[in-house]
Amino acid sequence: MFDLVSQGAEARLYAGEYEGRPVIVKERFRKAYRHQDLDDRLTKERLKAELRGIQRAKAIGIRTPTVYFVDVKKNSIYMERVEDVETVNTTIGKLLQESGKCDYSKHKFPQLEVLGHEVGKIVGKLHQADIIHGDLTTSNILVKINSNELILIDFGLSHMEDCVEDKGVDLYVLERALASTHSNIPWIFEHVLDGYKQTNSKDGIQVLKKLDEVRLRGRKRTMVG
Amino acid sequence: MDPFFLNEGKLTRALYQNVSNAGELRKLILTAQLPLCLLKPKFIVDDFQLSVAITKALYNQKDNMMTTKTFPSELIYCLSPLRNINQSLKIFGSEENDTDVIIVGDEGFFQTIKDSIKGDEIELSEISKFTDFQSVIDLYEITHEELTKSSLLDSVVTRMATK
Lengths: 225, 163
What we know:
Largest interface: A-B, 29 and 26 residues
Largest sheet of chain A: 5 strands, antiparallel
Number of strands of chain A: 10
Helix content of chain A: 40-55%
Oligomer: heterodimer
Order of helices and strands of chain B: EHEHHHEHEHHH
Protein backbone atom coordinates (compact mmCIF):
# COMPACT_ATOMS: atom_id res chain seq x y z
CA MET A 1 0.00 0.00 0.00
CA PHE A 2 1.37 3.32 -1.05
CA ASP A 3 -0.12 6.38 0.62
CA LEU A 4 -0.07 9.90 -0.71
CA VAL A 5 2.10 11.97 1.57
CA SER A 6 2.09 15.33 -0.12
CA GLN A 7 1.51 17.12 -3.34
CA GLY A 8 3.75 19.90 -4.52
CA ALA A 9 3.77 22.05 -7.60
CA GLU A 10 5.68 19.49 -9.60
CA ALA A 11 5.26 16.13 -8.00
CA ARG A 12 3.28 13.90 -5.69
CA LEU A 13 5.02 12.04 -2.92
CA TYR A 14 3.90 8.60 -1.82
CA ALA A 15 5.17 6.54 1.07
CA GLY A 16 5.34 2.79 1.07
CA GLU A 17 7.69 -0.15 1.26
CA TYR A 18 9.95 -1.99 -1.12
CA GLU A 19 11.49 -5.28 -0.09
CA GLY A 20 10.99 -4.38 3.53
CA ARG A 21 12.56 -0.94 3.23
CA PRO A 22 10.72 2.34 3.73
CA VAL A 23 10.36 4.05 0.40
CA ILE A 24 9.25 7.38 -0.92
CA VAL A 25 7.98 7.67 -4.48
CA LYS A 26 8.30 10.99 -6.20
CA GLU A 27 5.94 11.06 -9.15
CA ARG A 28 6.25 14.02 -11.45
CA PHE A 29 2.96 14.77 -13.07
CA ARG A 30 1.88 16.46 -16.23
CA LYS A 31 1.13 20.11 -16.28
CA ALA A 32 -1.99 20.44 -18.35
CA TYR A 33 -1.40 24.09 -19.08
CA ARG A 34 1.82 23.30 -20.92
CA HIS A 35 2.00 22.05 -24.48
CA GLN A 36 2.31 18.29 -24.15
CA ASP A 37 5.58 17.85 -26.04
CA LEU A 38 7.25 20.58 -24.07
CA ASP A 39 5.85 19.20 -20.86
CA ASP A 40 7.13 15.69 -21.57
CA ARG A 41 10.57 17.00 -22.39
CA LEU A 42 10.78 19.23 -19.32
CA THR A 43 9.55 16.52 -17.01
CA LYS A 44 12.04 14.03 -18.42
CA GLU A 45 14.85 16.56 -18.10
CA ARG A 46 13.98 17.22 -14.48
CA LEU A 47 13.87 13.50 -13.84
CA LYS A 48 17.31 13.00 -15.39
CA ALA A 49 18.73 16.00 -13.58
CA GLU A 50 17.43 14.70 -10.29
CA LEU A 51 18.96 11.27 -10.79
CA ARG A 52 22.27 12.74 -11.90
CA GLY A 53 22.30 15.18 -9.00
CA ILE A 54 21.58 12.51 -6.41
CA GLN A 55 24.27 10.26 -7.85
CA ARG A 56 26.93 12.98 -8.13
CA ALA A 57 26.30 14.37 -4.67
CA LYS A 58 26.47 10.88 -3.24
CA ALA A 59 29.75 10.28 -5.05
CA ILE A 60 31.40 13.18 -3.23
CA GLY A 61 30.28 12.09 0.19
CA ILE A 62 27.06 14.05 0.62
CA ARG A 63 24.19 12.11 2.07
CA THR A 64 21.34 11.74 -0.45
CA PRO A 65 18.50 9.24 -0.66
CA THR A 66 19.44 5.91 -2.24
CA VAL A 67 17.54 5.33 -5.46
CA TYR A 68 15.91 1.91 -5.73
CA PHE A 69 13.88 2.08 -8.95
CA VAL A 70 12.89 4.52 -11.66
CA ASP A 71 9.62 4.12 -13.51
CA VAL A 72 10.41 6.10 -16.63
CA LYS A 73 6.92 5.84 -18.08
CA LYS A 74 5.40 7.37 -15.00
CA ASN A 75 8.31 9.73 -14.28
CA SER A 76 8.55 8.29 -10.80
CA ILE A 77 11.58 7.83 -8.60
CA TYR A 78 11.42 5.20 -5.86
CA MET A 79 13.96 6.10 -3.24
CA GLU A 80 15.00 5.60 0.34
CA ARG A 81 12.66 7.16 2.84
CA VAL A 82 15.06 8.29 5.51
CA GLU A 83 13.40 7.95 8.89
CA ASP A 84 13.61 10.29 11.86
CA VAL A 85 14.26 13.35 9.79
CA GLU A 86 12.75 16.79 9.51
CA THR A 87 13.49 19.72 7.25
CA VAL A 88 16.04 22.26 8.41
CA ASN A 89 13.15 24.65 8.36
CA THR A 90 11.35 22.66 11.02
CA THR A 91 14.47 22.18 13.11
CA ILE A 92 15.18 25.89 13.18
CA GLY A 93 11.58 26.61 14.10
CA LYS A 94 11.70 24.08 16.93
CA LEU A 95 14.96 25.40 18.34
CA LEU A 96 13.64 28.94 18.32
CA GLN A 97 10.36 27.98 19.94
CA GLU A 98 11.92 25.81 22.62
CA SER A 99 13.90 28.67 23.93
CA GLY A 100 10.77 30.65 24.58
CA LYS A 101 12.92 33.70 24.35
CA CYS A 102 12.04 36.93 22.67
CA ASP A 103 15.70 37.58 22.24
CA TYR A 104 16.89 36.15 18.93
CA SER A 105 20.30 37.67 18.96
CA LYS A 106 23.49 35.89 18.07
CA HIS A 107 25.22 33.72 20.65
CA LYS A 108 21.97 32.71 22.28
CA PHE A 109 21.55 29.75 19.96
CA PRO A 110 24.75 27.77 19.68
CA GLN A 111 22.89 24.82 18.14
CA LEU A 112 21.69 27.05 15.32
CA GLU A 113 25.19 28.31 14.74
CA VAL A 114 26.41 24.76 14.33
CA LEU A 115 23.48 23.85 12.10
CA GLY A 116 24.10 26.87 9.89
CA HIS A 117 27.76 25.94 9.70
CA GLU A 118 26.93 22.39 8.69
CA VAL A 119 24.57 23.60 5.98
CA GLY A 120 27.32 25.83 4.63
CA LYS A 121 29.79 22.97 4.64
CA ILE A 122 27.52 20.76 2.61
CA VAL A 123 26.84 23.46 0.01
CA GLY A 124 30.55 24.22 -0.14
CA LYS A 125 31.28 20.58 -0.83
CA LEU A 126 28.68 20.55 -3.60
CA HIS A 127 30.07 23.66 -5.24
CA GLN A 128 33.63 22.46 -4.94
CA ALA A 129 32.56 19.59 -7.17
CA ASP A 130 30.83 22.07 -9.51
CA ILE A 131 27.39 20.77 -8.68
CA ILE A 132 24.72 23.46 -8.54
CA HIS A 133 21.70 22.32 -6.56
CA GLY A 134 19.36 24.82 -8.20
CA ASP A 135 16.75 24.94 -5.45
CA LEU A 136 18.48 25.40 -2.15
CA THR A 137 15.70 26.06 0.28
CA THR A 138 15.39 24.99 3.88
CA SER A 139 12.80 22.42 2.86
CA ASN A 140 15.28 20.64 0.63
CA ILE A 141 17.78 20.03 3.37
CA LEU A 142 16.83 17.34 5.86
CA VAL A 143 18.28 16.86 9.32
CA LYS A 144 18.42 13.64 11.26
CA ILE A 145 16.55 14.48 14.46
CA ASN A 146 18.80 15.26 17.40
CA SER A 147 21.91 15.26 15.30
CA ASN A 148 23.64 17.52 12.82
CA GLU A 149 23.58 15.00 10.03
CA LEU A 150 22.20 16.51 6.86
CA ILE A 151 20.59 14.89 3.86
CA LEU A 152 20.19 16.79 0.64
CA ILE A 153 17.13 16.21 -1.53
CA ASP A 154 15.29 17.52 -4.57
CA PHE A 155 17.87 17.78 -7.28
CA GLY A 156 15.37 18.33 -10.10
CA LEU A 157 16.83 21.70 -10.97
CA SER A 158 20.46 20.75 -10.52
CA HIS A 159 23.19 20.99 -13.11
CA MET A 160 26.96 20.95 -13.39
CA GLU A 161 28.61 24.31 -13.69
CA ASP A 162 31.97 25.59 -12.73
CA CYS A 163 31.21 29.29 -13.05
CA VAL A 164 31.15 31.36 -9.96
CA GLU A 165 27.98 33.16 -10.99
CA ASP A 166 25.72 30.09 -10.73
CA LYS A 167 27.21 29.17 -7.39
CA GLY A 168 26.60 32.66 -6.13
CA VAL A 169 22.99 32.46 -7.22
CA ASP A 170 22.64 29.03 -5.59
CA LEU A 171 23.76 30.55 -2.28
CA TYR A 172 21.58 33.59 -2.76
CA VAL A 173 18.48 31.42 -3.14
CA LEU A 174 19.34 29.84 0.19
CA GLU A 175 19.91 33.22 1.77
CA ARG A 176 16.52 34.44 0.59
CA ALA A 177 14.85 31.23 1.77
CA LEU A 178 16.31 31.64 5.24
CA ALA A 179 15.45 35.30 5.33
CA SER A 180 11.86 34.73 4.42
CA THR A 181 11.11 31.84 6.76
CA HIS A 182 13.27 32.93 9.68
CA SER A 183 13.64 36.64 9.44
CA ASN A 184 14.19 36.89 13.19
CA ILE A 185 17.65 35.30 12.98
CA PRO A 186 19.42 37.13 10.14
CA TRP A 187 22.81 36.21 11.57
CA ILE A 188 22.42 32.56 10.73
CA PHE A 189 23.56 33.01 7.16
CA GLU A 190 26.98 34.21 8.33
CA HIS A 191 27.49 30.78 9.83
CA VAL A 192 26.37 29.18 6.59
CA LEU A 193 29.01 31.22 4.76
CA ASP A 194 31.67 30.26 7.32
CA GLY A 195 30.95 26.60 6.73
CA TYR A 196 30.91 27.21 3.00
CA LYS A 197 34.35 28.80 2.97
CA GLN A 198 35.67 25.85 4.88
CA THR A 199 34.73 23.23 2.31
CA ASN A 200 34.80 25.08 -0.99
CA SER A 201 38.52 25.50 -1.29
CA LYS A 202 38.19 25.62 -5.06
CA ASP A 203 36.47 28.95 -5.57
CA GLY A 204 34.75 29.68 -2.27
CA ILE A 205 36.21 33.16 -1.92
CA GLN A 206 35.32 34.20 -5.45
CA VAL A 207 31.80 32.87 -4.99
CA LEU A 208 31.32 34.95 -1.87
CA LYS A 209 32.46 38.01 -3.74
CA LYS A 210 30.04 37.20 -6.53
CA LEU A 211 27.32 36.76 -3.94
CA ASP A 212 27.69 40.41 -2.99
CA GLU A 213 27.08 41.34 -6.62
CA VAL A 214 24.07 39.03 -6.88
CA ARG A 215 22.60 40.57 -3.75
CA LEU A 216 22.79 43.99 -5.33
CA ARG A 217 20.90 42.76 -8.36
CA GLY A 218 18.22 41.34 -6.14
CA ARG A 219 16.82 38.54 -8.31
CA LYS A 220 17.99 35.04 -9.14
CA ARG A 221 18.99 35.87 -12.66
CA THR A 222 22.20 35.24 -14.49
CA MET A 223 21.65 38.28 -16.69
CA VAL A 224 22.68 36.48 -19.84
CA GLY A 225 21.08 37.18 -23.17
CA MET B 1 -1.05 4.51 -6.54
CA ASP B 2 -0.03 1.17 -7.92
CA PRO B 3 3.69 0.56 -7.89
CA PHE B 4 4.95 -1.67 -10.67
CA PHE B 5 6.58 -4.27 -8.50
CA LEU B 6 3.55 -5.24 -6.49
CA ASN B 7 2.32 -7.14 -9.50
CA GLU B 8 5.49 -8.81 -10.56
CA GLY B 9 5.73 -12.56 -10.43
CA LYS B 10 7.95 -14.06 -7.79
CA LEU B 11 11.21 -15.37 -9.12
CA THR B 12 13.34 -17.99 -7.46
CA ARG B 13 16.81 -17.06 -6.27
CA ALA B 14 19.25 -19.56 -4.92
CA LEU B 15 22.86 -19.57 -3.81
CA TYR B 16 25.05 -22.62 -4.14
CA GLN B 17 28.58 -23.34 -2.93
CA ASN B 18 31.00 -26.19 -3.64
CA VAL B 19 29.60 -26.44 -7.13
CA SER B 20 31.52 -28.85 -9.35
CA ASN B 21 29.58 -28.55 -12.57
CA ALA B 22 29.11 -24.87 -13.22
CA GLY B 23 30.19 -25.28 -16.83
CA GLU B 24 27.75 -28.11 -17.42
CA LEU B 25 24.88 -26.10 -15.92
CA ARG B 26 25.75 -23.17 -18.08
CA LYS B 27 25.66 -25.27 -21.23
CA LEU B 28 22.42 -26.88 -20.16
CA ILE B 29 20.74 -23.51 -19.62
CA LEU B 30 22.06 -22.05 -22.83
CA THR B 31 21.20 -25.00 -25.05
CA ALA B 32 17.70 -25.34 -23.71
CA GLN B 33 17.41 -21.54 -23.68
CA LEU B 34 16.02 -21.65 -20.17
CA PRO B 35 15.04 -18.32 -18.63
CA LEU B 36 17.53 -18.83 -15.82
CA CYS B 37 20.39 -16.57 -14.92
CA LEU B 38 23.59 -18.10 -13.60
CA LEU B 39 25.82 -15.56 -11.94
CA LYS B 40 28.97 -15.15 -9.93
CA PRO B 41 28.33 -14.08 -6.32
CA LYS B 42 31.61 -12.17 -6.49
CA PHE B 43 30.01 -8.85 -7.45
CA ILE B 44 26.89 -9.23 -5.38
CA VAL B 45 26.98 -7.46 -2.02
CA ASP B 46 23.55 -8.37 -0.76
CA ASP B 47 20.31 -10.04 -1.80
CA PHE B 48 18.76 -6.60 -2.04
CA GLN B 49 21.08 -5.81 -4.93
CA LEU B 50 19.50 -8.74 -6.77
CA SER B 51 16.03 -7.43 -5.94
CA VAL B 52 16.77 -4.06 -7.47
CA ALA B 53 18.13 -5.65 -10.64
CA ILE B 54 15.17 -8.03 -10.87
CA THR B 55 12.65 -5.20 -10.50
CA LYS B 56 14.35 -3.26 -13.24
CA ALA B 57 14.72 -6.25 -15.57
CA LEU B 58 11.08 -7.24 -15.16
CA TYR B 59 10.01 -3.67 -15.78
CA ASN B 60 12.06 -3.53 -18.97
CA GLN B 61 10.72 -6.89 -20.07
CA LYS B 62 7.12 -5.92 -19.49
CA ASP B 63 6.70 -3.65 -22.48
CA ASN B 64 9.45 -5.01 -24.68
CA MET B 65 11.84 -2.38 -23.48
CA MET B 66 14.73 -4.69 -22.80
CA THR B 67 18.16 -3.68 -23.95
CA THR B 68 19.22 -7.31 -24.28
CA LYS B 69 17.52 -10.26 -25.91
CA THR B 70 16.57 -12.45 -22.97
CA PHE B 71 15.49 -11.96 -19.39
CA PRO B 72 18.61 -13.57 -17.88
CA SER B 73 20.90 -11.31 -19.86
CA GLU B 74 18.72 -8.33 -19.03
CA LEU B 75 19.07 -9.15 -15.37
CA ILE B 76 22.83 -9.09 -15.71
CA TYR B 77 22.66 -5.88 -17.69
CA CYS B 78 20.64 -4.30 -14.88
CA LEU B 79 23.21 -5.41 -12.33
CA SER B 80 26.07 -4.04 -14.36
CA PRO B 81 27.34 -0.44 -14.24
CA LEU B 82 28.55 -0.86 -17.81
CA ARG B 83 26.64 -0.07 -20.95
CA ASN B 84 28.35 -2.83 -22.91
CA ILE B 85 26.19 -5.93 -22.86
CA ASN B 86 28.88 -8.45 -23.76
CA GLN B 87 31.30 -7.14 -21.19
CA SER B 88 28.59 -7.23 -18.57
CA LEU B 89 27.77 -10.85 -19.37
CA LYS B 90 31.45 -11.78 -19.20
CA ILE B 91 31.89 -10.09 -15.84
CA PHE B 92 28.77 -11.27 -14.05
CA GLY B 93 28.02 -14.54 -15.76
CA SER B 94 29.16 -17.82 -14.24
CA GLU B 95 32.16 -19.51 -15.71
CA GLU B 96 33.26 -23.11 -16.20
CA ASN B 97 35.37 -23.38 -13.07
CA ASP B 98 33.26 -21.40 -10.64
CA THR B 99 32.51 -23.14 -7.38
CA ASP B 100 29.82 -20.74 -6.18
CA VAL B 101 26.85 -19.66 -8.20
CA ILE B 102 23.66 -17.69 -7.86
CA ILE B 103 20.67 -18.81 -9.90
CA VAL B 104 17.76 -16.51 -10.56
CA GLY B 105 14.72 -17.32 -12.63
CA ASP B 106 11.29 -18.74 -12.92
CA GLU B 107 10.51 -21.29 -10.22
CA GLY B 108 9.19 -23.88 -12.64
CA PHE B 109 12.28 -23.85 -14.83
CA PHE B 110 14.52 -23.83 -11.82
CA GLN B 111 12.94 -27.07 -10.64
CA THR B 112 13.82 -28.74 -13.93
CA ILE B 113 17.54 -28.28 -13.38
CA LYS B 114 17.67 -28.27 -9.59
CA ASP B 115 18.57 -31.94 -9.37
CA SER B 116 21.38 -31.49 -11.85
CA ILE B 117 23.21 -29.01 -9.64
CA LYS B 118 26.21 -30.66 -8.01
CA GLY B 119 26.65 -28.37 -5.05
CA ASP B 120 25.26 -27.29 -1.67
CA GLU B 121 22.47 -24.80 -1.49
CA ILE B 122 22.90 -22.19 1.24
CA GLU B 123 20.87 -19.26 2.52
CA LEU B 124 20.88 -16.15 0.34
CA SER B 125 21.76 -14.16 3.43
CA GLU B 126 25.21 -15.73 3.17
CA ILE B 127 25.89 -14.01 -0.14
CA SER B 128 28.43 -11.63 1.33
CA LYS B 129 30.66 -14.61 2.15
CA PHE B 130 31.49 -14.71 -1.54
CA THR B 131 31.60 -11.01 -2.25
CA ASP B 132 34.89 -9.60 -3.46
CA PHE B 133 34.44 -6.13 -2.00
CA GLN B 134 37.44 -4.59 -3.69
CA SER B 135 36.26 -5.86 -7.08
CA VAL B 136 32.84 -4.37 -6.43
CA ILE B 137 34.40 -1.02 -5.53
CA ASP B 138 36.57 -1.12 -8.65
CA LEU B 139 33.81 -2.22 -10.99
CA TYR B 140 31.23 0.28 -9.79
CA GLU B 141 33.91 2.96 -9.45
CA ILE B 142 33.01 3.89 -5.89
CA THR B 143 35.32 6.30 -4.18
CA HIS B 144 36.51 6.26 -0.61
CA GLU B 145 34.85 9.63 -0.15
CA GLU B 146 31.50 8.26 -1.18
CA LEU B 147 31.74 5.46 1.35
CA THR B 148 32.13 7.94 4.20
CA LYS B 149 28.45 8.77 3.93
CA SER B 150 26.97 5.85 2.02
CA SER B 151 27.05 2.10 2.47
CA LEU B 152 28.54 0.04 -0.32
CA LEU B 153 25.14 -1.49 -1.01
CA ASP B 154 23.49 1.93 -1.27
CA SER B 155 26.16 3.15 -3.65
CA VAL B 156 25.89 0.10 -5.87
CA VAL B 157 22.11 0.09 -5.92
CA THR B 158 21.84 3.81 -6.73
CA ARG B 159 24.13 3.33 -9.71
CA MET B 160 22.11 0.40 -10.94
CA ALA B 161 18.79 2.16 -10.55
CA THR B 162 19.91 5.34 -12.25
CA LYS B 163 21.83 3.90 -15.20
